[in-house]
């Protein structure tokens, strides 16, 4: 078996013994790199990568895998919610909750929001219909329909034949969705959430972290 005796380093030849001495001399710096520095660097890179998935509306792993579009984006909504991308909102809770926690020789990247897993992997949720939920649904209905909320009088008024109410245009799908929720007789809902992965193993991210680690090692060894 062929045995290699030398390596090429800084435009000169260095034998194995000299290279071993260099490694020993730089051991503390190399250990500090892997123990302290790289977990922070890798964590920051991962957070940026996963948050960029929100901007690109898909998961990057061997190329971009686009998310299913949110229904509100195709409903013709003109309010603020209709202007945000899938999984994004005015508050961006899911986006801003991506975090990293560096530890010795490792880093944990996560999103601890209670609804993060079902968005990331897809699934079903079964929320209880509460009075608060119905009030919220009515508020969203009035917002989506553009109608002003009428004060309750305690009296029911029937629609007069030929009145303006009978000639109103059909409600838009977004408003109708909220109205149905407000009026539903169900005590629990069954809602299917499509998978929109934003965090997880990524080939592109792994390659960038590996490249960054190798560059940091070369800088320490002056290679």
Structural account:
With 223 residues, the protein is an alpha+beta fold. It has a domain at 7-112 and 206-223. The chain is 43% helix and 14% strand. It has seven helices and eight strands; from the N terminus they run ββααββαββαβααβα. The protein has helices at 16-25, 27-56, 93-96, 116-121, 131-145, 173-183, 203-221; strands spanning 6-9, 12-15, 58-60, 64-66, 98-103, 106-111, 123-125, 191-193. A two-stranded antiparallel sheet has the order 1-2. α2 runs antiparallel to α7. The longest helix is centred in the first third of the chain and has 30 residues, at 27-56. It is elongated and about 90 Å long. The model is unreliable at 1-12 (pLDDT under 50). It comes from Phocaeicola vulgatus. Residues 149-162 have a biased composition (Basic residues). This is Mu-like prophage protein gpG. Residues 149-175 are annotated as: Disordered.
Distance between the first and last residues' Cα: 27 Å
Strand runs, count: 8
Structural class: alpha+beta
Rounded to an integer, what's the Rg over CA atoms? 29 Å
Count of helix runs: 7
Q: Looking across the biggest beta sheet, what order are the strands in?
A: 1-2
Nearest-integer average pLDDT = 83
Main sheet summary: 2 strands, antiparallel
Run of helices and strands: EEHHEEHEEHEHHEH
By oligomeric state, this entry counts as single chain
Helix content: 40-55%
Strand percentage lies at 5-15%
The outline comes out as elongated
Region (Disordered): 149-175
Biased composition (Basic residues): 149-162
Protein name: Mu-like prophage protein gpG
